[in-house]
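Example record for the data management plan.
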Amino acid sequence: MKRLSLVASALLAASSAFAGADQYGGFARYADEGSRKPFARDLGGVLGAATFQSGRSLGLTGFDVGARFGGQFYPSKDNRILINNGVRIFGLPWVQAEVGMPFKLSGFIRGISYQGLTIAGGGLRYGLYAVSDKPWSPQLLVSVVGHSVVHQDFSASHLGTSLVCSAGTPFFAPYVGAGFDRMRLVVRQSTLDPTLNGSEVSTLESRFTGGVRLTPYQFTYLSLAYTLAHGQSGAEAGVGVRF
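Corresponding structural encoding:
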């Protein structure tokens, strides 16, 4: 557990360095008509990241708790809100907990208060196959997640869904996922264009993930993945305890 705590602390420290300082603080200064949708797409892609690291359902009485990070390597072309604020690499760290339920269901909650953002989220997963730990036995599940985002300059809601498949050994398990992120963004304050205050935009974009989960110690894991959200490259990572 001590080693896991050190790895989790390192992951959160690395995610802070990856994200940079005050990445969302330029919203009011740079939000204009053409930048709202690209900003919503980028934020939606980050919110939808790091919600899974296996196609295997937890199973009844299963439990998983850990740290997560999802990020994007560069803002979308017209996302002047982040670009004009000097943001290049950006993302979000998370604390996430999951519990197994009957009927191949599992539920999870996640949240963070970070750089002026307060985010609460959660979701459900449903295993399409019976839970199996046989080597290279394919596992498949459907995951649905939602988030509520509050910032002094904007608010947002997110709904994401994914189909996830994995196979491997107890120590090494590759996984892939494909899904969609729907975002609704409301402008609370734009000093650049006050006529946008109270306006809203919605986006629906694709997301693809490919990664691997490693289990270096019993009940502990580390996951690393590449993501492609609305055509933008990114990465996600996680560390936790899973029973």
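Summary line stored alongside the record: The first helix runs from residue 2 to 19.
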